[in-house]
Amino acid sequence: MRPVGGRGQPENRPRRVRGGWRAERLAPYVLVAPAVLIIVVLRLWPLVLGVNFSFTGDGERNGTTVGLDNYVDLLDDPLFRTALRNVALLVLLLPVAVAIPGLLATFIYLRVPGHRLFRSVYFFPAVLSPVIVGAIFNLLLAFDGPLNAILGGLGIGPFDWLGNPHVAIFAVAGVHIWATFGMALVVFLAGFATLDAALLDAARVDGASLAQTIWHVIIPGLSRTIQFVFVTTLIGMLTSMFGLLYVMTSGGPEGSTYLPEYYIWVQQGQMNRPALASAASTALFMIMLVVGLLQISVLRRAARED
Amino acid sequence: MKQRALWSAVLVAGLALTGCGRASDSNSSPGGSDGKLVVWDWKSGDTSAASYIKKAKADFASKHPGVTVEFVAQPFEQYYTLLGAAIQAGKGPDVMLFNGGGQIRDRVDALLPLDEYVGQDKQRLAGWEAFTKDSKTYAAPVTLQGHPIYYNKSLYRKAGLDPERPATSWNEFVAHCQAITAATGAKCFAQGNKEGIGIQFFMSGLGSGILSPQEYDDWIAGKRNWTSPDVKRIFSLWKEVNDKGLNNDGANSTAMFNDAFAVFQSGKASHVIGLMSDIGHWKDFAEFLDAGNVGVMKSPVVTAGTTPSLPYDGGIGYAVARRTKDPRVAADLVRSLTSTDALKAFHADAGAIAADATIDVSGAGPAVATIVSEIKGGQPALHVALSSKTVELMGRLSQQLLSGSVTVDKAVEQLAASDQAG
């Protein structure tokens, strides 16, 4: 990147040399300027405005500086605390969300009977919009819906899947995993394509069981893919569950399925508290910043290992 | 990367010290320029509102031929989000539709008091209270919205009860319900509290049978006594009804719109506290149950000495933005939108109880006739008087009451705190 042209030029043409050197030195900045401008004007500047706005008041205090009042309000609000707790819960559910597509991809890779069919069937939910998925599962999980009817036939339940505050967030997260694992599955299958088949053959020759093959051969061989899926799944969970929440629970029952995104929407659109919503957005941004930094360090370390 | 994190931290700290944003810019360019008015609503796109809009436009054009009116229909789900953002950006419409109650009261800063313009309509139209804050009126009512208790007359007949004489006391009401359940298997109430709306309907539908007339008036006037036993009774009755099995199963996961109404329409419940206009009302129910089978009753007397009445308010109404260029022209548009002719068309096509009490409704069935006859003695609904924040909290608490994770006392305590805070 460092411009070096012109340094070794003869001294009897100093003007041209300096001009050329300057042009060459400026060129990279000119070339990146459009991208930087777009990021600064459309991303960073609105972000700054939003953060700034979060330190002002709502309603009667509109436009006045209120310091950290909005953040104090946030921490006082049991709904926001629930939203943060649910974020933590989703992080805890992450291994499950990664293990499911990983296992299914493994079966497809090991050519279980019907693997071609499964490959397309598993991907199918990923093309449905969250609203459609939510509507379908609203029917399936209704108190008098088919799932409870089946469980009732087996002598279990009925469960109020979307009406019990201890169950609803798991129901929604489960549906989200169902609806999105197709993408992760495809990434896993791509990862498998890079796996050395000779290692699997060797394991088979040595008489390794399926569990041993997965644990000692497939998981180490796919470590980078698994890390990648971890990161993308987490981001998906934190940023794209709004549609499902909106359709399936509206944050309820008892506010138990709130996530920061949904909270922001409610405060801005329903409660007329845009500044508080900005504060919540800033908090969500901080969370995502931490996640993003972790993600970069993980990916960087993975790259160094290779 | 570390540097970037540091930068953001510095930025946040800096802004924390200087914080100086503003939600709406009062100096932005005024609307209504060039003889054009922009109207926002979520109705004008419906085919059922077409003739209403046409009549209102014609009426307005005869008064102000030089002014063009542009209707912008927004999706209702996003309406207040979009409107809030537009108002904050100083780019809102000149005239806009509002639901009565919390939504408009939260936004009066941006609205023009209409009292000096709509004086002549005050007698003809009902439902002003829902658009009033601090005794200033901010919108003119188009429809009335309220919470009659609908009942299924054919279920009454099957249980050997007289469908023309619904219960007047709570004990009698419960006895009727039990008789109907024994005879037909239908539950007493179709209840949907997934969105936390069930409690709003319940509170307003039965409130006039629970609160004494004095308490009722005080509640509406903003002097709500949350420690009164009658106020607590609203919430203990809410819980009791569910605990006794009078609601359909899974009320907390049943959406009021439209699963709970579907329970009533399909005859699986004998009563539902519904609406008067738009949806979940006499017109919807008549399609499934036949207009002759849809009954409307007043709240049974729960507390002795109460006088049950129909709870209703202005349902939707048009308001004028403070920043509009010529308030008189915009207010005239609002008057056209609430003219008798226009509202007549709205009642007939959209199935709404119009705010104009002079409209003839005899063609719409017995339920409507009952509702309209009760409008004169009706009172504002209890939940409409609460702020949207308190209503939202009440929704969550009502779900907790049903699941048993909060006691009535604790719930009322929290509501009192929220109500008194703002």
Structure explained in plain terms:
The complex is a heterodimer of chains A (306) and B (422). Chain A is mostly helical and 306 residues long. Chain A is built from 13 helices and no strands. Chain A has helices at 14-53, 69-76, 78-109, 115-123, 130-140, 146-153, 168-193, 197-205, 210-221, 223-239, 242-248, 260-270, 274-305. Chain B has 422 residues and is α/β, with parallel strands linked by helices. Helices cover 45% and strands 12% of the residues of chain B. Chain B has helices at residues 2-18, 50-63, 76-88, 102-105, 115-118, 153-158, 170-184, 198-210, 213-221, 229-243, 256-265, 282-289, 327-337, 340-350, 366-375, 388-403, 408-421; strands spanning 36-41, 68-73, 95-99, 132-133, 136-137, 139-141, 144-146, 149-152, 187-189, 269-273, 294-297, 312-314, 316-320. In chain B, α8 (198-210) packs across α10. Chain B is globular, with a radius of gyration of 23 Å. Classes of the chains: A mainly alpha (306), B alpha/beta (422). At the A-B interface, α1, α12 and α13 of A face α1, α3 and α16 of B.
Brief overview, please?
The complex is a heterodimer of chains A (306) and B (422). Chain A is mainly α and 306 residues long.
The CATH topology of the largest domain in chain A: MetI-like fold
Estimated structural class of chain B: alpha/beta
Q: Give me the CATH architecture of the largest domain in chain A, please.
A: Orthogonal Bundle
Instruction: Give me the CATH superfamily of the largest domain in chain A.
Output: MetI-like
Mean of residue pLDDT of chain A? 86
Number of domains of chain A: 2
CATH superfamily of the largest domain in chain B: Periplasmic binding protein-like II
